[in-house]
Design a protein that fits this description.
Shape: rod-shaped
Radius of gyration: 34 Å
Distance between the termini: 99 Å
Strand content: 5-15%
Number of strands: 5
Structural class: alpha+beta
Oligomer: single chain
């Protein structure tokens, strides 16, 4: 608590909670953690205990080159941005709603086919009845008469 952390979408993807010991902490998937530790065991190591079994990984700040640190942070950031269900389905983001703006597949600015806008008239004229008071016909006189 009180240590600097890095968040995206309300979730933490990296912290400096172990900075006094010379470590930064990254939240990775177990597969990513294993790959990082295997490739650079002098830079990355799983955090001991349960945190490490969930993908939390130490990075030795003094031993990590800037490009390695940047790549590791970007990897942890992407893990938090893309939902976990997408990672289980191959790493592609899941979109339940279509984007508000779509570009053509050809990469051009104009689509190959463009839909036309068709304006249809209102059925049976205007939807509100219009009554003109001057044209109203009175069937009975407005005054009473004695028989």
């Amino acid at each position: 608590m009180g240590q600097p952390d890095f968040r995206v979408g309300g979730g933490i993807f990296a912290t400096l909670a172990s900075a006094k010991q010379g470590y930064g902490n990254l939240q990775l998937s177990l597969e990513q953690q294993a790959a990082f530790v295997e490739e650079l065991p002098g830079v990355f190591l799983p955090i001991p205990g349960g945190w490490g079994r969930m993908g939390m990984t130490h990075i030795r700040l003094a031993a990590a080159p800037e490009d390695v640190l940047t790549g590791a942070l970007r990897t942890a950031w992407k893990l938090r941005v893309i939902p976990a269900s997408a990672w289980r389905c191959g790493g592609e983001p899941v979109s339940s709603t279509p984007p508000s703006r779509q570009r053509p597949a050809s990469g051009a600015w104009k689509p190959l086919m463009q839909s036309m806008v068709v304006l249809l008239p209102e059925p049976f004229g205007p939807m509100r009845p219009m009554m003109a008071p001057a044209s109203t016909v009175k069937l009975k006189p407005s005054t009473a008469v004695r028989p």
